[in-house]
Predict the 3D structure of the following.
Amino acid sequence: MTHPPTETREASLDPGAATRIADEALSFQLGTTTRPAIDRQTRLLVGQVEAFFEAGLPEDDTEAEKQRREITALLNSSPAPQDPAFSAHTYMRALGRVLRRQVRQYEERQVGGDNEECGLAAGRDSGRPAGTYRVPSGLATLAAQRWLSVSGGGYR
């Protein structure tokens, strides 16, 4: 017996599985990943973001409303099938970053409700970076800049 097409499965609130899905999505490279793989991963991410949507919002009402608007806008702006792979890849990465933040906030609320000190210790020992994702914007050291100028890279 088959299930009716209107029946949907909701993703469970499993922080470990959600983190693995986000990490996998963020590890995809544009030049070596096919569009169908990006689309499959995006569907997984959307399911997880929707599952953690309300459960992972901060307790501060102002910040929660800001994130609610951000996530709603992100979920409503998915790329069309005819859009370039770059758009789909960028969208997938944005979902991955949002999911990481949602999982972190969810875990902080779960642990923070039991014991505030444990929440701080768990955050430090989790091995995942805290805060927002920053895109690298150039060479970090003067030595690398000098090497490029000498080697013909033309950095100035």
Notes: The first helix runs from residue 15 to 27. Confidence is low (pLDDT under 50) at residues 1-9, 115-125. The two ends are 67 Å apart (CA to CA).
